[in-house]
Amino acid sequence: MRRLFDRKLLGGLAVALLAACGGSSAVAGSQPNETHPVKLAFSAAVPQVQKVPTIMAMDALKAQGHDTSITYLQQSEDPVQAVVRGDDNFGSAATSTVFAAIAQGIPVKAILQAQRPDYVLEAPVSVTSPAGLDGLRVGIHAQVSSTALYTALVMQKYPNAKPKILVVPGSANRIRAMVAGQLDASMIQLPDLPTLDKLAPGKFHDIYDVAKERPDLIDAVIFTRTDLIASDPTLVKQFITASLQANRKVYTDVQGFASEIAKVVPNTTAEQAAVFAKLYTDSKVFPRDGGLLAADVQTILKALTDSGLLKQVPAASAAYDRGPLDEVLKAIGK
Amino acid sequence: MTERRRRAAVLAVRAAILAGLALAWEWLGRAGGGFFLPPLTLTLGHLAAMALNGTLGTALLTSNAALGIGLPVSILVGVPAGLLLGRRRLLDRAFSYWLDVALVIPMIAVVPAIIVALGLTLTARVAVVMLFALPVIALNARAAVRLIDVDLTEMARSFCARPLQVWTKIILPAALGPLFGGLRLGLARGISGMIVVELTLIPAGIGGLISGYRSRFAAADLYAATLTIVLEGVVLIAVVQLLEGRLARRLAGL
Amino acid sequence: MTRLLQSYPQPLSAAAVVAGWELAARLLHPAWLPPASAVAVDFWQLIRSGQLLLLGSTVRTLALGLLIVFAAGALLSLLVGLSRVMDEALAPFFNAALSIPTIALVPVFILLWGLSDATRVATVVSFALVPLVVTWAVAARDLPGQLLEMARSFGASPAQRLRFVILPAGAPVLIVGVRIAVVQGIKGVVSAEILIGVIGIGQLLQQATLTFDLARLYALILTLVFLSVISYLLLDALERRTSRRTTRD
Question: What dotted CATH number matches B35-253?
Answer without folding.
Answer: 1.10.3720.10
